[in-house]
Amino acid sequence: MNVVILAAGMGKRMQSALPKVLHPLAGKPLLQHVIDTARSLQPSKLCVIYGHGGAAVPEMVGKLAEATGTRIDTALQQPQLGTGHAVMQAVPQLDDSVPTLVLYGDVPLTTVDTLRRLVEVAGSDKLAILTVEQANPFGLGRIVRENGQIRRIVEEKDASAEERAIREINSGILVIPTKRLKGWLESLSNNNAQGEYYLTDIVAKAVAEGVPVVSSQPSAEWEVAGVNSKVQLAELERRHQLNIANTLLEKGVTLMDPARIDVRGELVCGRDVVIDVGCVFEGRVELADGVTVGPNCVLVNAKVGAGANIKPFCHIEDAVVGDKSQIGPYARLRPGTQLGEDVHVGNFVEIKNSTVAAHSKANHLAYVGDATVGSRVNIGAGTITCNYDGANKFRTVIEDDAFIGSDSQLVAPVTVGAGATLGAGTTLTKDAPAGKLTISRPKQITIEGWKRPVKVKK
Ligand code: UD1
Ligand code: CA
Fold it and tell me: Which of 7, 226, 315, 326 qualifies as a cystine partner to 21, CB 3.0-4.6 A?
């Protein structure tokens, strides 16, 4: 099958410099949703028609083609003279021996199942239209039937009052026998209310030539909903998020409120996962069995081990959390963080590009960067690894069973040996030997007879 995706329109009502089809839904451009759906139909040709927004659309398509190893052609439509004119731009790319499916780049949520059904009813010789009955069909093309048979499509602006009363509308998604399509496109005229070349005019041509015209319907209206404004984008975002939440619930995930979770990527959950309100998941996030995520956490490309508890207000990105670990509240795990089993990371602790082995703890107010931390290490409040001299980064190594006293600075590169203790307030600039107490602190003195200054009374 050939797939043509129309994405040349301007999207004026978005009130944005970004081309409409590049606006994100669930963190992914609208057009990418459509391309991903099209790809799962394994088309032999895939062509995106672009126009408005200059190079941004073909650039995004090029990147996606490269990342997925798929061939995706693009064709420029300039100026934009209507949907029929848009499809004309793809004609040289289309293989006559298979049907052509037309999709819109601004209709992101059509399911693969719905498209498969449409392709099935079309077979190799019929024209098939995805139609839907809408309570408010205003602005859309109406399906004109006689004795139940589709005769043509009439656009709102060309329709009679009687035709405007029809509630069955054209979603715009069609499957067309390709050889016929090419002929019909050649004979299109723009003699209509909008002076456009309507793709929809091919329906009457098919009927005139005795080509059967059939239809099928999506499982829900949102499958054919397009985005023309930020209001519609926001509505579809909510719809999509609710669909994702329902899928999670069906798989047994507990969501404290299915209306208050956002998944902008792929969220994979084990059994008995509980997610509280206000959490955002981006990229690929894996939560193993029994993980709980407290309110208002953001997890990006993260893997959380079984039984771990992510307390409220944590930010975790490109990080791995070990089984049974306790994270937060208010913890930040930055890229390259790998925590072993039963690691405790408390409030206002930031960890970056570091490994922390099993049973170690950093419970309050610490920065651990470019560090290798062993097992059963205790990192006291206020500890900082000084990993950066303004130009270069250095590693800190803290071996098993070390105890880092509060408010210590570890000036990397430096190693704290196994079982070593650092006294509170130590500025460590040389390695601390294993098993011993190391402390760098001026001796405490008390000045006898010292008096606190007092304000002179005027
Ligand atoms: C079109 C259909 C209408 C249908 C409606 C569904 C025609 C003539 N009408 O309406 O029957 O109910 O979609 O939303 O086909 N586009 C281009 N180049 C153009 C014009 C449009 O690429 O020259 C793209 C747009 O970017 C958009 C899609 O085609 O993705 C539909 O265009 P739009 O103007 O929104 O639809 P209408 O023509 O109003
Ligand atoms: Ca539209």
Answer: 7
